[in-house]
Amino acid sequence: MPSQHASPESVRERARELESTLERLRARALMLDLTRGKPSSAQLDLITDLDGCLGGDYRCEDGTDSRNYGAPEGIPEARRLGGELLGVPADTVIAAGNSSLELMYLFALWAMRFGPDGRTPWESDGPVECLCPVPGYDRHFAICEELAIEMVPVPMTGRGPDMDAVEALIASHRKIRAMWCVPKYSNPTGETYDEETVRRIATLGSNAHPAFRVLWDNAYSVHDLDDHPPASANVFALARAQGNEDTIVGFASTSKISLAGGGVAFLTASDTNRNPFLGRLANMTIGPDKVNQLRHARYFRDLRGIRAHMMKHAALVRPKFELVLDRLQSSLGGKDCGTWTVPKGGYFISFYGEPGTARRIVRLCADCGVRLTEAGAAFPYGRDPEDRHIRLAPTFPPTDELETALEVFVTCAELVTLRQRLRAND
Ligand SMILES: Cc1ncc(COP(=O)(O)O)c(C=O)c1O
Question: Which 8-state DSSP code applies to residue 160?
């Protein structure tokens, strides 16, 4: 790609080359999908032994028959597994159904209606606000939007949310009642909160409204791609040490460890939050799927078992991340038409084009048979103020499809940038 200072004629010449490359790609009538962060079939094949691993023995370690109703808080061995995953004592954990997102939705809904502690409903203070680090997870934002919780964006920094901004907002906006956090390999930037950021998050409760809660969604805590994962601090221990244990509510699941949508979800919280929540949960269900909980607990045994399994995932996922990052670098590196994150784990890479290009890049890719997550999806109300961000999700497609999808993507990204540059010079 010609540099920013290249002559309009050389820019036009390069744009024509890219258009003919796109014509060739379009003629292949591709139907490729890089939209959602789903595990590939090969990743799911790693866990086929889960099926049938109980061998007819349904007895839990406390003697409970997992096939029968009861135990809304989950079975002891599943709560222990969840506790290890989240870095908290098992007795602070609820092991629930198949989806942590469902637990987040319920927690937010019930905090609105009844209060996070069962006493101070968020909605009793009128419209309330939630801090949303951006780019972030579109489904978190959908929960807020549905519950009419106003979203206040806060930029991510590469080391987690901008904590100066977070602290200033909490000090000045008395309506803030929540903050979303995906602390490790955040969706979609792939960054991990550094220790200083986690320490400051653990302190927020000291200055916030008493009903303020950090919704700590640690969905990717064990999704490392290599043997040198970034260190992550324990927010629960840090908060507890300052008497802020009620501020942090943690979530995790085995969705992207075992079966996507067929795993076990966990919530951890202080007694103040957990007991009222459990009370409501018990009104909603006579108990979770304990058979699924038991087979996960027997299959993995403990965190070591989970980590050993995740090394097999890494062997499948790492080459796909490398492919995407190599292709971005070889085709767009040094061309002033975008930057991207280089995550050490998780499910996503964030691409940042020139301001004003993301929607057009996504549209042009779709036109050439490659579906990407909607531009703007990683921002509250679908609005990326700079129209720059695109989420890339490399895990699901087979490698040959990923290769082709990336060819389309880099061609579109460069072409859209050049066209924009030409228009600016007209
Ligand atoms: C940050 C984050 N949280 C939660 C989920 C969904 O988890 P679950 O399947 O447990 O509902 C995802 C899935 O993409 C995610 O990226």
Answer: S
